[in-house]
């Protein structure tokens, strides 16, 4: 009987942990797509990845984003989930952005960003974005 | 009996480790709250230099933008009371969100004093051994 209880407990813990990797993968993918979309000005990709506060922030930022001169290229993008509880979580993205502006020049910097997320209707959405670090390279 | 002793010893060690982990989390929360209190006191005293040492990322940019207005403000402010509540801490204990409710006394010379309640969410990130604020969101509260 004792062995059966222990076995049930082990299976229960494993089952609870099973869903985590797929959730984290989904969250990381959302953050990844968002970083790439903002850099490339594909706002039709970025917008559906947001909800709540970040949707409002992005809406206000659209004119500024569309009028930005030059091009941005993302390299060395690494995303990991540093918090996940139920339908709330956060991912950290680290990447190098090279920005080339005609007649001005090129700048290169490493960014570290936090993406606060919630799961709505089976999809992870970004509700807040914050800069943690920016270092020129 | 020897087997019982081993089981009891193992349970005591596990309990001790759990308590230790809890203590460490409390210490982090305490350090985070101290950083926030220093920041709020610095802002209210218009000490932008001290506040700047406590921020990074978005909060650093916001402070740079807001610094001229903070310095130019001739009114005086004082924090009367503050409470904190840890919303969450990340897995490595290097980042967390703290909810802080505080009372601020605001005095304008020749006009008078008011006291208002605020509710703020601070995002903090641990660089080395120091907690720094990377995001600040403050709103008036309905506490009063």
What does it look like?
Chain A is α+β, with helices and mostly antiparallel strands. Helix content of chain A is 42%, strand content 43%. In chain A, strand 2 and strand 3 (105-120) form a beta hairpin. The radius of gyration of chain A is 19 Å and the shape is elongated. Chain B has helices at residues 2-44, 48-52, 57-72; strands at 76-89, 95-108, 112-127, 130-140. A 4-stranded antiparallel β-sheet of chain B has the order 1-2-3-4. In chain B, strand 3 (112-127) and strand 4 form a beta hairpin. Chain B is elongated. The model of chain B has no long low-confidence stretch (mean pLDDT 91). The chains are: A alpha+beta (137), B alpha+beta (144). At the A-B interface, strand 1, strand 2 and strand 4 of A face helix 3 of B.
List the topology elements.
The complex is a heterodimer of chains A (137) and B (144).
Chain A: H1 2-39, H2 43-46, H3 52-67, E1 71-85, E2 88-101, E3 105-120, E4 123-136
Antiparallel strand pairs in A: 1-2, 2-3, 3-4
Chain B: H1 2-44, H2 48-52, H3 57-72, E1 76-89, E2 95-108, E3 112-127, E4 130-140
Antiparallel strand pairs in B: 1-2, 2-3, 3-4
